[in-house]
Specification:
The complex is a heterodimer.
Chain A lengths: L8 H14 L4 H15 L5 H12 L5 H43 L4 H9 L1 H41 L4 H22 L1
Chain B lengths: L1 H15 L4 H15 L5 H13 L4 H43 L4 H33 L1 H17 L4 H16 L1
The chains are: A mainly alpha, B mainly alpha.
């Protein structure tokens, strides 16, 4: 890797800034743009390394864009690389968000502004509906219809009927997968 | 104490949301709307809509903005830290181990078993937004806006930012 060469933090910043500012649809949409920067433009990783990084970061919870920025930034520039890559992918869009919503908030008592915030709700509902269907399809692809439907029905019962906190259910499922794995690794 | 609450509100979704930022949104809503009552479902929908209209990762836009609303600049940084740090530290710490076992079935399965749970969480959040919209806009407008935006987004592949902008313009015009 290039960790011992002189790392150009300006390049690190621009790579993650461009990917962040051009990707619409949340972190997952940023991945192909990031690949273009990291593999294509700057050659910090090859396609295989990048693919492995994506696959492994998907086994971990939390936002994907920041996991990638932090990990790739660290790999090419140590702690400073990590911070620069994270700042570039996060700060500009947060500032835009605060500015835009700040303007909207200061006019929120004006009737037509109030109406704007209502008419946008059904659009969000459609986007979430599509995202729901994506996750149902991913579940089916990963687990097959039988297991997927069983887990969906179980989750509806536990979360929505019995009111269990999702944290508990997710932690239990992860434990069910990981405990046999850890046992096997330890006993080796 | 507000900073601790902000940290927790974003730490929990960050550590449980498998499938990237969008998967953690219903978990964020659970904390921000249900547990801490910082905003109503409709306000959350508004923030989410504008977040979707802007580029970049969604989880950090939500955390940065909601943290800022509740605790100023420091609150914003705490929200971002809670979202980013735990999963990143986990990743940096476990990367070496995971690389060794990357072809093991269990490691691949971790994110798979959680997907149906996330589907249910986002599904119920969708329902909540539909009901919310029904009570503020009525049946006809809700169904019409949903049908048109589905057509634009999924069939005609119009950019989400454009569809959200159209909905905002429609709202402004009908609200005058």
């Amino acid at each position: 890797m290039v960790a011992d060469e002189k790392v150009r933090f300006g390049d690190v910043f621009m790579a993650f800034f461009r990917a962040g500012m051009l990707g619409f649809g949340g972190g997952p949409a940023v991945i192909p743009l990031l690949q273009r920067e990291v593999v294509g433009r700057y050659g910090w990783m090859n396609d295989d390394e990048f693919g492995d990084t994506i696959a492994l970061s998907n086994t971990m919870p939390g936002p994907i864009a920041t996991k990638l920025a932090g990990y790739i930034g660290y790999k090419i520039g140590g702690m400073w690389g990590l911070l620069v890559a994270l700042a570039a992918s996060v700060i500009p869009t947060v500032l835009l968000m605060i500015l835009l919503l700040g303007v909207l908030q200061s006019y929120k008592d004006v009737p037509w502004v109030q109406n704007m915030s209502q008419t946008v709700v059904p659009v969000v509902a459609v986007m979430l509906g599509v995202l729901t269907w994506n996750f149902v399809q991913q579940s089916q692809k990963a687990l097959g219809w039988g297991v997927a439907i069983f887990l969906i029905v179980l989750s509806v019962l536990l979360l929505e009927v019995l009111g269990l906190h999702p944290a508990i259910l997710i932690a239990l499922l992860i434990a069910a997968v990981l405990v046999p794995f850890i046992k096997r690794v330890v006993s080796k | 104490m507000i900073y601790w609450q902000i940290f927790l509100a974003f730490f929990i979704p960050g550590i449980l949301g498998y499938g990237g930022g969008p998967a953690s949104i219903p978990l964020v809503e659970k904390e921000v709307v249900d547990r801490y009552g910082w905003m109503s479902t409709q306000e959350f929908g508004e923030v989410l809509a504008l977040g979707n209209a802007l580029p970049g990762p969604i989880a950090t836009k939500m955390a940065g903005y909601i943290g800022y609303m509740e605790g100023g600049i420091l609150g914003s940084l705490v929200g971002l830290f809670g979202t980013i740090a735990p999963s990143l530290i986990l990743m940096l710490g476990l990367m070496a181990i995971l690389f060794k076992y990357k072809d093991s079935a269990e490691v691949k399965n971790i994110s798979k078993v959680v997907k149906p749970v996330i589907a249910v969480l986002i599904g119920f959040m969708t329902l909540q937004f539909v009901l919310e919209s029904q009570s503020s806009l009525g049946n006809i407008q809700t169904v019409a806006i949903m049908a048109i935006s589905y057509l634009l987004l999924e069939r005609l592949k119009v950019h989400p930012a454009v569809v959200i902008a159209l909905a905002l313009v429609y709202g402004a015009l009908t609200g005058i």
